[in-house]
């Protein structure tokens, strides 16, 4: 009897293990039936925005590993997902909603945002759980972009974010990706911190924050961009400025792009650093356009046409180029490139509005994910893209 019971228990356990592996793959297969059937921007816009609103309260967990077998082991070890990864997923959704609400008054979206904010920040405006890593800064920036909320109420959380960034400033005066990786400077850091530093510095009169953001960008331009091609490497080593990882990693271009363009956007026209950043925007826009594929996308390795398209790179670079189009000398080519990116993203969107085929989380310097799936980060930037594009396109028509 005991052996029989043990056999039943073992059988149930094995079934659970198998189901944890099989169900996600089956769900992906079903979700991709009739993928990319959106034939106009209005219906796509509605679908991806609705999906983003739903995900605000229940954001899909993003895997740390690429394992698709015996997933239960990763879950039990706590290696399935990490809070830092979730921060930039949720931040992107909030940024997408902020752009959406700039052009629409949607009570349901605001309600969902308030629900998310209430579980992330306490009644006094501080973090419920203060981020340990700089990934949290982009979430603080997203909070500042929600115009219907009072940013000053959340000043304790914003101040804590600035303090956390200061704790990561290294010997060269730039910000470390992690405290235990003092000798490396990552391209990801540009996207994580620079927009927040500029927005926070302007709002609260802290010029040192703006100076730090500009220094972070210019140091990366100096040591992390490939000469002649202007492509960022994944990382550069601090002591000898040697590049590490891949030049032309798609999402690496995206991190550099969003950090640069949002920081530039935040600066007023008369600010002393506006023109300097604008020159970097112009140079990087031309580089990005050169490596866009004929289908409108960027591959996960942008320099190789044989590699897989990456929706996260495409969405972030599309956002960058939309705003780079404000520079007269490159306006037309940037708008055309951004439009092609949007058309591609429509083709990789599932029936339920989830944008598919984004590269998974990076494992280490030069160790990139082989999984391509949904990513809330991509969803948020698609929402940002389409609402900004439709607004800009309408504005161009009025002035034509």
Automatic annotation (TrEMBL):
The keyword Ribosomal protein does not apply. Keywords: Hydrolase, Membrane, Transmembrane, Transmembrane helix. InterPro entries: 6-hairpin_glycosidase_sf, 6hp_glycosidase-like_sf, Glyco_hydro_88, PolySaccharide_Degr_Enz. The keyword Hydrolase applies. GO terms for molecular function: hydrolase activity. GO terms for biological process: carbohydrate metabolic process. Pfam families: Glyco_hydro_88. It comes from the Bacteria. The chain crosses the membrane at residues 6-27. This is Glycoside hydrolase 105 family protein.
